[in-house]
Amino acid sequence: MITIWDNPEWRVLFDVTRLEKVKPWQIRLAEIIESLMKELKEIGVIDFHSCGVAAYSAATIHRMKTERLLKFDIPRAPKERPNMILPPPVNLPLIPDFMITTMNELIEALQKLLAKSGKEKVKEERPPLEGFDVKFDEFLVKLEEELESFISALRRRFENREFISLSELIGDGDRLEVARRFILLLFTAARGLVEFVHDDDMELIGVKWIGGSGRA
Hints:
CATH class of the largest domain: Mainly Alpha
Strand order of the largest sheet: 1-3-2
Helix content: 40-55%
Number of strands: 3
């Protein structure tokens, strides 16, 4: 009579209580059955009860293997893309009346300044424009304060001058500093204090002080 203790590799076929705990793809089912059949032929005894249990266990293990294969064939549900809310476009703080030069010309001038600030520093040292000690993370929060400080610094720069080139006015800092000053300059133009002028003779963009109340 075949018992579960005859060979350790056969125990998985005769102890049905362990079937749910086994890892089916780690069991070499064909080799185990072939070994069992060889043993049955050698002893010349057929135990129908034990063979029935072994057949049931083998079928169960085969089914478990098939189920695990099918799990890999199930297509995954597509992930839903999050709804991205695009903010509305930001209107530049410019009034057409104070724009003698075109916006394209102004942008080109800014690009040249940014490219220039990324290279070697200009040998000629210019005094820094006052009012730019604000940290970037505080810039938007304290925009009004910084704008007033910037306008005060501009008034001093234009005391004896009517026209200053854009590069001289804001181009003596790094890329971040140039961008800060340019934004503040746009807000200053929106208040009617300055205007952007394209000098055809000198082929440059300049800023002209035109005064005003200083309020938008």
